Structure formats: structure tokens, C-alpha cells
Amino acid sequence: MNSCSSGTEDCLYMYIYVPKKRISRYYNFDVVVHMHGGSLVVGSPYENILPDYLMDKNIILVAFNYRLGAAGFFSTGDSVVAGNNGFKDQVLALKWIKENIKEFGGKPSSITITGWSSGGQSVQFHYLSPMSRGLFHRGFSSSGVVTNPDALTLIPKENAKRLAESLNCGSRNTNQMVDCLKRLPIEKLVNTSMAFKPSVEKGIVNGFLPEHPYKLLKDKKVYDVPWVAANVVNESLYSLDSVYNNRSEVFSIYNNWLEWGRVWLDLEEYVEQDKMNDTLNRIKAFYMDSTKLTEQNGLEKLNRLLTDRHFLVGTDLAVRTHAAATRSNVYFYLFKFIPEDRLQFGGPPAASHGVDNKLLFKDRANPNKLQHEGEKMMREFTDFMAEYAMTGIPKIKKNLPPIIRPESCLNILEINSPDDIQPREVTEIAPRAFWNSLPIKENNHLY
């Protein structure tokens, strides 16, 4: 089946996997819907969401494509092209599932939406969208929340103009610009190197995202059903392959920090230029200068910085504000287990981006059978998903503790191995006070 990033608009396929019992509308299986990751640029269920592990459980698994890149998230920042078409594809899929899953033996009153990376962000976006109300009953976001720095753009109109100019469709008139783009082959739009992100549809009637996600969370405009968020402890190691293979590269990064940092930390859109160098130097001092930089500790320092910036700081904010906004329980687990199977995308063997997701879903890049501890952990995770889908209570050997005092501390579940899974109380998931002190125009710095 085609991915929605492969240059074709014929891509909106749905995959429905049922237990080996005969398909019948008279069964009543709980339903798990999974949204693939891929930075809203690449990915498809065909490649990344194989059902092998979960089909041992009495649940139905559904996955679907949705439009990606410019086809899914191009926006002019107004009613001409409101944007978020990829999310609107997801809403349409959820509506179809609720209306039709009974014909496959599914229970329309028990739908759990799950997602990894940008799919995890998608899940939390559905909690904030009026379009998604009533279409699901609980959710799970792995390695992605709406307060991550890559979850939203504040400048959709500027991004639209840059794309149009690169394709010789530049115009001061938005309608003329869009008409020109519509006449181009779809391949030219989706194969652009520009990344398009979700955007606020302020003032748009029946839009997907009426306000900034942080404002919706603070104003408690959140769909009130349970939510589980999760991260792995070394999310960003996968992106540091070159440093892992050539440890001396860390010195080049350190010596060219002002050039390197603004790009890798995704700061261009969020920090004013006259404050950029000072901001970068403060970050460098906090993460890189606390002890003497060596080839041995350089990879660890860079990973900690990138993991905090791109994942954990946003998660800390998301779970606190989400828990404060709803009466339903909010949960969080931190995954530290390193399977002997190489499940991560790159870098050293580690609890890196995607490892926990690969214990729920096989993918075509890792077709081999899990070994020993990896298989034990896979069984814990498939039990967790089935139990959560059936009861709304998340359990990985032990019940996940709900976050009950988000303003002061966080109750989390720490997963170290199949036999070492412990609840903990922590003051923070990442150094939020430091990041809040920086002039980065995101989330709580906007409202």
C-alpha cells in the first residue's frame, strides 16, 4: 500500500486486524487504533505497524494512512487553506471506525487511540480538538506530546510563501498563490525538503485546532478521558550516529556551537535573533561546560541536551497541564530497558527513540524474533495495551500511578527491565526551571 508521503494522493488506506476467531458483528472486541510516527513527513502502517504481537490478545487493531508533508499540513494561516488536513484525515478515520467497527466484531463504545512520536502528538491533539470529541475513550502517547518544539508552527503563512516561491508560485495574493500550487503535480509539493507542521486555525469555523495547544490546556478545554504519556530515557541517541561512530566530532560541534545549536535545537522560529547567541551560550554552559568535555562523555552530554529539548521538557509540561485540566487520570512511564535486540533506529544499543513502540508492533525493518528479555518485555507491553484498552486502567506488571499533584511532583512508573518496574515520585522529568528561564517563544512563554 502507498505511503501518503510517496508522491500520490491515492494513499488513504485503513488496515483492520482481528483475532483469529471468525469475523462477526456479534463479537464485542475492544478496539486499539494506532497512528504511525514519522515527523508528519514519512511513514505508513504497512511498513511500521505489523500486528503480530497484539493479535494474541482479544482486541481489534486498526491503523490508517493520513496525508503527510505539504499535502497534510500546508496552511496559508487563513481560510484559504486552513491547514491540518492530515489531522482531519485522522478524524474522518475515527468517525468511520466508530460507525463501522461493529461489523468487524469491534466495540464502538471502547476505542483506544495510540501513537508513537508524531503519532503520539496526534493523539494528544485529538484531546484538544472539538472535531474529535466522542470519537475515542482513552489514549496513549509514546514519545510525542503537543508541547514538543516540533509539534506546531507559529508562522504557517511564511512557510506557505517560501514553498510557493521555491516552486515559482510566489504572489502577494494568497488565492492566486494557492491556485498556482494546485496546478502543479502533487509530487512537487510532497517531495519538497520543507517540513510542514500543524498550525492554529484561529477564527476558522469548525477547524481542528482553534487555539494554541498550551492555551487550550491551560483553559481546560480538554476532552476528559484517561491519557497515558511515555518516553524512553535516551530519546535522541538515534540522531547521534555520526558522533557515536566518530567520538571526536563532539569537539567540532562544541567549537561551532552557535551554528550547530540553532539548527539542531530547532530555535530559529522561536528565539529572536538578537537573543539567539546568548540563549545558545547559556544552553552550552548548562549542558556542555559543567565538566571537562571528552570523547567519552561528549555523546552523553549531547544526548541529554537533545533529549531534554526535543522530548522531556515538553512532556513535563504536557502531563502537568493535562492532569490539571481533567478529572480523568493522567499517567506517565519512563522506559530505561535496553533489549539485547537492536530495536533502535541508530546509535549505540540503548533505550532510544522507538524502542518501546517496537515491543508493541513489529516492523518490516526488524523482522527477527525477539530474544529472551526482549520477548519478556514485549509480553508485558502487549498485556499493558490489552488491559488498558479493555479496562481503562494501565498496568505494566504494576498499576501506573496517576499524577495527582501536578503542580508539585509527578508520580511515574520507571521501567528498567521485565523484572524491575517500579513506581516513583519525582519533582520533574527534565530541568524545566532552566528551560523556562530562556527566551524561547513557546507554550508558557506565549500566554
TrEMBL record:
A Pfam cross-reference name: COesterase
Give UniProt keywords alphabetically: Disulfide bond, Glycoprotein, Hydrolase, Serine esterase
Listed GO MF terms: carboxylic ester hydrolase activity
Give the Carboxylesterase type B domain ranges.
6-417
Per the record's keyword annotation, is Hydrolase included, yes or no?
yes
Regions that span the bilayer? none
Keyword hit for Glycoprotein? yes
Q: What is its EC number?
A: 3.1.1.-
PROSITE patterns cross-referenced by the UniProt entry: CARBOXYLESTERASE_B_1
The top EC class, named as a word, is: hydrolase
The superkingdom of the source organism is Eukaryota
The UniProt family comment states: Belongs to the type-B carboxylesterase/lipase family.
Question: Could you tell me what this protein is called?
Answer: Carboxylic ester hydrolase
What lineage does UniProt assign to this protein's organism? Eukaryota, Metazoa, Ecdysozoa, Arthropoda, Hexapoda
